[in-house]
Design a protein that fits this description.
Layout lengths: L5 E6 L3 E7 L5 E8 L8 H15 L10 E5 L3 E2 L4 E2 L13 H8 L3 E5 H12 L8 E6 L3 E7 L2 E2 L32 H5 L4 H11 L10 H9 L3 H25 L3 E5 L1 H5 L1 H11 L8 E4 L6 H14 L3
Parallel strand pairs: 1-4, 4-7, 8-11, 11-12
Antiparallel strand pairs: 1-2, 2-3, 5-6, 8-9, 9-10
This protein binds zinc ion.
Zinc ion binds next to α4.
């Protein structure tokens, strides 16, 4: 019998990607579009995703597929079946599970993107055969997903391991982009916040001569051996290491993989920086960049479908 593919949806704030994924994790067909932010309400996105699914299916019967998996921006509302008040899109709610189940007459599995990613790591990546692992994305925001004793941690509404908002700093007093607290990891170390952290750090250290608008500018300067950029990246490494130290004691993982654009473009600085400053209270897990690159979300959405079908 031919093994059935999953229909995988990676719903991000800027892009929606839809693919057919084989049980071995091979992407056989895919398409993507910029996320529609000009609709009247969240249904605009539901319609957009349905259109992309139809496109990759190109006439095939949805009943011949293993199901639909969605890796979505958070925070999720499991009971309602979609993300609510997500900070990076202009809709209060995007209905996903019910309308897509109805339209395609197949089951829909919904996970937040970082939870989907850790599932991808276990099914298709470095976490195969491991029961305890954590995935962290350092991207526009910071998110995490954890598998403990073989179980994906979900929490009451699907947002467990939202480690981007753990408090890791009391020195710089930086308000997080979530607006809910100061010293959160994401407020200092995500792609959208690193330049602001640089500014605060430079002011505190009387290094006001330089201004960097983007993360890329800072890392380019560091690669050119600019001393101030290198010093700041060392401070950033301490911040990341504080956070990873907390992640280690919270979940006791065997493996931590890191992904997201900030990591993937600067693996050398990010991974070695964390290893340099991480606490050794518990035995250190392996810490490495993910090998699944930016396909980790789509692979996680597919893994959610295969996991559900196996009843695991
Ligand atoms: Zn926060």
């Amino acid at each position: 019998m031919k093994q059935r593919s999953a229909i995988a949806v990676d719903f991000g704030a800027s892009k929606i990607r839809v693919a057919l994924v084989s049980p071995k994790g091979k992407i056989t067909k895919q398409t993507s579009e910029e996320t529609d932010k000009n609709g009247k309400n969240g249904t605009a996105i539901t319609i957009q995703i349905a259109g992309l699914i139809k496109e990759v299916m190109s006439g095939a019967d949805p009943k011949d597929m293993a199901g639909i998996g969605i890796a979505s921006i958070g925070p999720l509302h499991y009971q309602r079946g979609g993300p609510v008040s997500s900070p990076n899109i202009p809709y209060s709610f995007v209905p996903l599970v019910k309308p897509l189940e109805k339209k395609f007459r197949t089951s829909v599995s919904l996970l937040n993107d970082a939870n989907a990613a850790v599932l991808a790591e276990k099914h298709f990546g470095a976490g195969k055969n491991l029961e305890n692992l954590v995935y962290i994305t350092l991207s526009t925001g910071i998110g995490g997903g954890a598998i403990v004793n073989g179980d994906l941690l979900l929490g009451k509404s699907g947002n467990a391991a939202e480690v981007g908002h753990i408090v890791i700093d009391t020195k710089y007093d930086i308000l997080c982009s979530c607006g809910k607290g100061k010293g959160h990891w994401e407020g200092m170390s995500s792609g959208s916040n690193i330049p602001r952290f640089f500014e605060v750090w430079a002011k505190k250290n009387n290094k006001r001569t330089l201004h960097y608008k983007t993360v890329k500018d800072i890392f380019v300067a560091a690669r050119r051996n600019n001393k101030i950029a290198l010093k700041f990246i060392d401070e950033l490494a301490k911040v990341n290491a504080h956070a990873i130290s907390s992640v280690i004691v919270a979940y006791d993982p065997q493996l931590i993989t890191l992904g997201g654009s900030v990591t993937l473009k600067n693996k050398d600085f990010i991974v070695s920086g964390i290893k340099k400053y991480v606490d050794h209270y518990l035995t250190l897990p392996r810490i490495q960049a993910t090998s699944l690159g930016d396909s980790i979300g789509i692979l996680g959405a597919a893994a959610a479908v295969f996991k559900k079908n196996r009843g695991g």
